Amino acid sequence: DGGMGRGDGSGRMVSPDDADDTGTRILHVDMDAFYASVEVLDDPSLAGKPLIVGGMEGRGVVSSASYEARRYGVRSAMSVQVALRLCPHATVVVPHFERYAALSRQVMGIFHDITPLVEPLSIDEAFLDVSGARRLWGTPGQIARMLRTRVKAETGLVCSVGVAATKHVAKIASTRAKPDGMLIVSAPDTASFLAALPVSALWGVGPKAAESLENRGIRLVADILASPRSVIERALGPAGGERVWQLAHGVDPRSVETDRVEKSIGHEETFLHDIADPTVLRSELRRLSDRVAARLRDGGFRARTIALKLRYADFTTLSRASSLPEPTDVGQRIGDVAIGLFEALQLTQPVRLIGVRAEKLQHAGGGLMPLWDDDAEWRRVDAALDDARERFGGGAVTRASVLGPRRDVNALPTNPRLPRTE
User: Taking the CB of residue 58, how many other CB atoms lie within 10 A of it?
Assistant: First the structure.
């Protein structure tokens, strides 16, 4: 989400240069207010001002906001209109995703220079395991300082880094260090560091779970440590309770995984004007389905499940999903499923956002092709579309059924494709 923690930087904690980094090996690096910072980089007159990066005039949502705007309560995912009520003198800039992706590739390239063990989490954050990089670059604390200096020198952007023994604690530490800070939590200090945190700082404890714990008088991680496990499991359910109990006790065995498989590939768009006409909405679903299918093919994936997302004018949001008999990467098939899901809904009011997502991804190489391929014809259409995209760029060529004014100029990938760093 363009690097918005909860924070406006008010509860910031940072380590002195000589802080103890005993037993640490994981870095979590998070670019500060990434999209907003890139806009300031490209237009220095915006520096130090409240800045909102978001959709078109009056519509759309906040993708990122500068720290100056956050102090007024501006948060990502709120509508630009609400943000401007909170902070009327903010400057609104339309997002430039190609530019963010290019800088992300550059930043991830710096990480890969330091260690091959990089796990990108999104366009603007990553975990690094530096245990094998010590003899080249020094201790984890020294590596974190060097990394911050290099990112600033080579890109002009600032990042915050958490250094810890586990992923979970490193991520909490980078959030606490924002903006432009570094926080080291040594292995011996981990228990006391965690105990003092509010329960909402734990990974996976969202607002609802936090409320459920607070209603039982459990406000700090220390209170979790003092409670029987059964109480935590009653508050959060068996699976959630088990995980939060483990994290509160500092147990997090997850390693840094360099080849994360994308969990889903989606595109959604917010319309300039709410749309009530089902014909237009079906045509947009075709367009989005073709985009999703193209990204599946680019990544070498097929999807087993197709999901539809629809948001009405009053912001009520519906999701529907359907599983396929055979996994697919064919635009026509994905569009048929998305339109089928759409037609099963009663349209009660005009629509402001629509999206298509492919889920349960598997590598296209896996599994035998069926004996006869029902989709052979459509595969040829897709191959022609792919070829045209290669030659003429993104939105130049589309199928006749979706001609008409381009509404998808504001369509965003729901999880921007991570830059390939090879």
Answer: 11
User: Quick one: pLDDT at residue 1?
Assistant: 31
Cα atoms in the 13 Å half-sphere on the side-chain side of 356: 31
| Preceding omega of 413 cis (within 30 degrees of 0) | no
| pTM for this entry | 0.66
Q: With contact defined as beta carbons under 8 Å apart, do 27 and 56 qualify?
A: no
- CA–CA distance, 347 with 23 (Å, rounded to integer): 57
The pLDDT averaged over each successive group of 10 residues in the chain (422 residues) is 49 84 94 95 95 74 92 89 93 88 92 91 91 89 96 96 94 93 94 93 86 93 93 89 89 76 79 89 93 86 92 89 89 94 91 92 62 65 72 59 55 52 42
60: left (phi over 0), alpha (psi -120 to 50) or beta: left
Bridge pairing between strands 351-363 and 26-31: unpaired
30 SS3 class: strand
Q: Is 332 helix (H, G, I), strand (E, B) or coil?
A: helix
Q: Which two tokens stand for residue 344?
A: 């099963």
53 closest CA partner among 45, 44, 64, 61: 64
pLDDT value of position 158: 95
The residues that are catalytic are: 125
* CA dihedral angle for residue 328, residue 118, residue 16, residue 155, rounded to 10 degrees: -80
Token pair, residue 217, equals 């008088």
Quickly tell me which residue has 């366009």 as its tokens.
123
- Output the DSSP codes for 71-140: TTT--TTSBHHHHHHH-TT-EEE---HHHHHHHHHHHHHHHHHH-S-EEEEETTEEEEE-GGGHHHH-SH
**SS3 of 271-296:** EEEEECCHHHHHHHHHHHHHHHHHHH
**Token pair for 345:** 């809904």
Which residue from 1, 34, 15, 48 is spatially nearest to 174, judged by alpha carbons? 15
Pairing of strands 26-31, 125-129: antiparallel
Strand 26-31 with 159-164, pairing: antiparallel
CB 340 within 8 A of CB 349: no
Q: How far is CA 2 from CA 47, 51, 130, 165, 227, in A?
A: 17, 13, 25, 26, 36
Q: Which of 144, 180, 167, 161 lies closest to 40 in space, CA to CA?
A: 180
**Per-residue pLDDT reduced to its tens digit, 197-217:** 999 998 878 888 999 999 999
